[in-house]
UniProtKB/TrEMBL annotation:
GO terms for biological process: DNA-templated DNA replication; double-strand break repair. This is DNA-directed DNA polymerase. It catalyses: DNA(n) + a 2'-deoxyribonucleoside 5'-triphosphate = DNA(n+1) + diphosphate. The lineage of its organism: Eukaryota, Viridiplantae, Chlorophyta, core chlorophytes, Trebouxiophyceae. It holds the Pfam family DNA_pol_A. One of its GO terms (molecular function) is DNA binding. Its EC number is 2.7.7.7. It is an enzyme of class 2 (transferase).
Amino acid sequence: MCRDHLRGLPVQVTPEKRGQAKQMAYGLLYGIGMHALAKSMEVTPDQAQQLSDSFRRRIPTLDKWLKGIVETCRRDRFITTIGGRRRYLTDIVSSDLRQRAAAERQAVNSAAQV
């Protein structure tokens, strides 16, 4: 995945590039903003956006999965973890944007973690 994402040949995948690919994957999965992603990857926000766009094109089902998790949680007011536990997130329908965004991130985190 790292090689494909960073467009390098196998011998060109350095630990630094592999680390950037991991930061991108986890950052997008957990809802990191472009400025925070850029800072963690030590690139400009524009470069982070370009890398993010490229990553999302290579994994087109990622956005659909993320949106599906949030929509299901918004409908049910809970998310079911991989282990079968229900995590109730009533702020998923909050009128407060910050609370709602936090609940959306929590929904994705809960669905993704074992």
